[in-house]
Amino acid sequence: MARKPPASDPVQDAPTVTGPKHAAAGIPAVAHTLRAAQRQMGVRRTALTLLSVNQENGFDCPGCAWPDPEHRHTAEFCENGAKAVAEEATLRRVTPEFFAAHPVADLATRSGYWLGQQGRLTHPVYLPEGGEHYEPVTWERAFGIVAEELGALSSPDEALFYTSGRTSNEAAFLYQLFARELGTNNLPDCSNLCHESSGSALTETLGVGKGSVLLEDLHRADLIIVAGQNPGTNHPRMLSALERAKANGARIVSVNPLPEAGMERFRNPQTPKGLTRGTALTDLFLQIRLGGDQALFRLLNRLVLETPGAVDEEFVREHTHGYEEFARTAREADWEETLAATGLTRADIEEALRLVLGSERIIVCWAMGLTQHKHSVPTIREIVNFLLLRGNIGRPGAGVCPVRGHSNVQGDRTMGIFERPAPAFLDALEKEFGFAPPREHGYDVVRAIRALRDGDAKVFFAMGGNFVSASPDTEVTEAAVRRARLTVHVSTKLNRSHAVTGARALILPTLGRTERDVQAGGEQFVTVEDSMGMVHASRGRLEPASPHLLSEPAIVCRLARRVLGGRSRVPWEEFERDYGTVRDRIARVVPGFEDFNARVARPGGFALPHAPRDERRFPTATGRANFTAAPVEYPRLPEGRLLLQTLRSHDQYNTTIYGLDDRYRGIRNGRRVVLVNPEDAGRLGVADGSYVDLVGEWPDGVERRAPGFRVVHYPTARGCAAAYYPETNVLVPLDATADTSNTPASKSVVVRLEQSATG
Ligand SMILES: Nc1nc2c(c(=O)[nH]1)N[C@H]1C(S)=C(S)[C@@H](COP(=O)(O)OP(=O)(O)OC[C@H]3O[C@@H](n4cnc5c(=O)[nH]c(N)nc54)[C@H](O)[C@@H]3O)O[C@H]1N2
Ligand SMILES: Nc1nc2c(c(=O)[nH]1)N[C@H]1C(S)=C(S)[C@@H](COP(=O)(O)OP(=O)(O)OC[C@H]3O[C@@H](n4cnc5c(=O)[nH]c(N)nc54)[C@H](O)[C@@H]3O)O[C@H]1N2
Ligand SMILES: [Mo]
């Protein structure tokens, strides 16, 4: 079977380059939206579907986790949200005939783009041991196969239950309940690859691993620092919030190795101004080196400490712990070292300080640019120090704003999708359901891969996602997954994980967000939690892609009945009939969900409590907000090497590739590109348009090579390079992870460029 990363068929990857744009959204985005949607859905369905995204009676956009504004426009969707919807609501279908025509070995040679473009999965299918094709299977038989393999394990801890962040609260709650009644906490999820570093840092310092701001806080802030995030592509609706903040007088600092178009200027298609020039968003652009953020915030903290009257002494005295030690360490911050770590100038940092000191209310927003480094957790802790110093936690217009990825990734964690559950959560489960959940911690994603590799895990079950493509070290991960006895994917669309299988494999097709979910108890809705802790209902409107689909809750309930049989204490049948009964249990188990069914029925849903935000109460080990002190770290680059970040283009949703353009960065018709600063390129002797292999350097001596990338001279920070994920995941070593959170360090990979043989 092909092990090589497949080429980007059907279109030969042939990038053309025009250079970065300086504004995002506007009329071209609207045109792109409609064109992309109509290609998948046709004109009528496009209109029907897009009009019910994020409306009170409609479905939650399966794109990002950005919250909904209180006054919704008729078209509360963005270009990339529309693409996410069109991917799901497409009229193309993957049927049993498709699998008969394409053996698994053939699927394994196809690109992720090609696989995704084939359309929605229509039937449960099974790959028997030694088989070459997936073949149709009944749901009963499929659940029987899972039960057989789970029953053959010597311990439930040999099973892994992965979750991607689109799963609803109801499905997530049922799924973790099933895994725990079976007897394992092996619940790795995409969060392990994503915002785990934020959760780790915030739980320790503030006592709650979530953001502390609501949308109205952004509108009221004096200063918003956006670090390590590209909202123009990944959270386009955030640009409207930034625009509104600007109109109210806020300043915006953007901290990024790349000048991202969306942060420069926003043309809001829903306002008259947006039809012309739009709004300039960034007041100060700090073009930082990859991994330089901790050093930057450390020096800013020193400068704040040295400014008379700048520290909010009352807040520090009343609410915090660890100030003295932190202040001692911060005072040692060194200008020279900071300039080297960040690549910034003295003037840059002095200007940033001036904006900080001139602002009463400060918010820091961030995403993957801060969470996917070895020292991500201390970096985010340093940001907490920065905010605590001036009392910017727990008052309007101020706080921490980790901007989440998947539309319900935060809710899934709230529902107990976590390999290290809090004892209080397990106690509540035990009390409610009367079985003793396992207490030992389970595997996160990286540990799950090692367990598969080492033969310690034998059944891999995925509730959504694309495990082999999203995970690091593609070759290691794929070889590990192939050792499994059974791999099972609950999926809407085909992806590479279906072609890299255990001895036996199942694909269980499921309903998407956009589709009507009818159970024995009538039409159902589900709920989700956005990035700011707002919970609301989501109701699909479209006819399901096929009559053979089951909803995610139904799949879990039926599987649990089949696997656990008479020994289960859980009323799975009732839960499947009526999701309201699941919400009644969530209300009794998860704090903040009291009276869930009644409150979620209100328009707009409700906000979960957040003690630091609401009452300046910090449920940490010390009972206060913790300042922390850690040594400053930043990546050191050997001579002749570059530090590579693996990031998203404008035409993808994680491993789902919508198209081959990255419009705002001026790249078209290809994904195998590497962005290199022209001065570095000159020093390394790589011409614009030449082809190179990216070769990873990591102390284990294993050669990790991503062949055939077109060099693009691009204004990124010196010493840094950028290329798209998942094509470059082959370069991220499994063991290169963040301290504490164990998130793969996919934004700081040391590489050398070699003349390409394949170009
Ligand atoms: N359309 C679309 N929307 C999405 C997604 C998608 O793939 N497509 N994915 C969703 C998911 S799951 C997530 S987690 C989010 C991801 O949202 P983002 O975090 O915006 O995604 P990335 O493309 O990884 O971009 C990382 C950004 O951080 C910058 N950066 C990288 N390293 C550093 C650093 O060391 N310091 C600083 N200051 N900046 C750095 C990069 O230049 C880039 O601008 O988006 C979500 N929304
Ligand atoms: N190198 C590198 N690696 C990364 C990242 C990076 O920046 N760089 N980012 C990481 C991040 S932030 C994340 S979140 C992960 C993402 O990791 P995952 O969440 O595992 O990956 P996705 O590509 O979002 O999953 C796409 C698949 O989900 C399925 N799907 C879509 N909708 C539904 C649904 O409603 N139900 C079900 N059951 N299935 C559905 C479809 O089959 C689709 O093919 O990747 C991580 N990997
Ligand atoms: Mo993510």
Residues in helices, as a percent range: 25-40%
Which topology of the largest domain does CATH recognise?
Answer: Rossmann fold
Tell me what the CATH architecture of the largest domain is: 3-Layer(aba) Sandwich
Task: Specify the overall morphology.
Answer: globular
Poorly predicted sequence stretches spanning 5 or more consecutive residues: 1-11
Strand order in space, largest sheet: 6-5-18-17-16-7
In words, what does this structure look like?
This protein has 4 domains: 13-88, no CATH class; 93-191 and 411-603, 3-Layer(aba) Sandwich (Rossmann fold), CATH 3.40.50; 196-403 and 621-626, Dimethylsulfoxide Reductase, domain 2, CATH 3.40.228; 642-755, Barwin-like endoglucanases (Beta Barrel). Strand 21 and strand 22 (534-538) form a beta hairpin. The model is unreliable at 1-11 (pLDDT under 50). The two termini are 24 Å apart. The chain is an alpha/beta fold and 759 residues long. The site of molybdenum atom (MO) has 4 residues, from loops.
Please tag this protein with its features.
Dimethylsulfoxide Reductase, domain 2, binds ligand MGD, 4 domains, six-stranded mixed β-sheet, single chain, Rossmann fold, 759 residues, globular, binds molybdenum atom, alpha/beta
